[in-house]
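Kindly review this record before class:
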Amino acid sequence: MPSFASNARDVLRLANMQYFVVMIDYGRRGREAIVDPEITRREVISRIVSGEYKNVSFIHEVADSSVEDVTADILAEAAVPEIGATGADLQAGHFDHARDLRKHEPADGPMFSQAITS
């Protein structure tokens, strides 16, 4: 049977817990929250620099009972420049828009090639 002292140490250890929540945005495929109590701030930065974490929506630091948004700080430490939309992203957006237009056209409306050029 555990003693009171060991239970108190366990409670104290849990009370001082710190971890990071990294939210990754996969676009149309959704988002993923990566929560690993073993990962440190330095490890989060190294994963961003290596490219393992891409399209980071936000990074929250959870310490004790408080949550702090540290996205700007960690991205600045990782020195990741903001990259605008690529040609593939713009093309995908164009195709999505054309598909949306087709959804709302009447059955006897313009053909696909006309919807893209307008």
